[in-house]
Amino acid sequence: MAACSDELTEPLVEAVPAAADSFATTAGDHDVLVALYEATDGPNWTKNDSWLTDAPLGGWHGVPTDASGRVQELSLGNNGLTGEVPAELGNLASLRQLHLFGNALTGVIPPAFSDPPNLKEFNWNENAGFVCIGHTAIHQLCREP
Length: 145
Description:
alpha/beta; Leucine-rich repeat, LRR (right-handed beta-alpha superhelix); 6 strands; 28% helix; disordered N terminus
């Protein structure tokens, strides 16, 4: 029986924590999306294909992801979302685009979402009473759909 070389096993051992970290962050994104679905009447959205299923997040309607499965975009404009946006939305660290225009969202952008590090585009117009109070970084990104 051949002995294992340390040169061969070390990269494998080092890759395991990285894979675990990727799964943990993808699971975190999953939890945020579940919170959004529950807070905004997901069962009655116009399109909610694959939401709350075991499908990869990138297979859920309006949820493009990167190669590691992290949420890059939420495209849920004109989709029948109602209620307040949950504070957990601020935990989507890889989110680059957020499209929530044309829904019936109310309230204010949660404080936890005041300065998302990677957000480049935020469309929130045409919502009943949904406002960007006190979020300078978000105001700079807001635009008409």
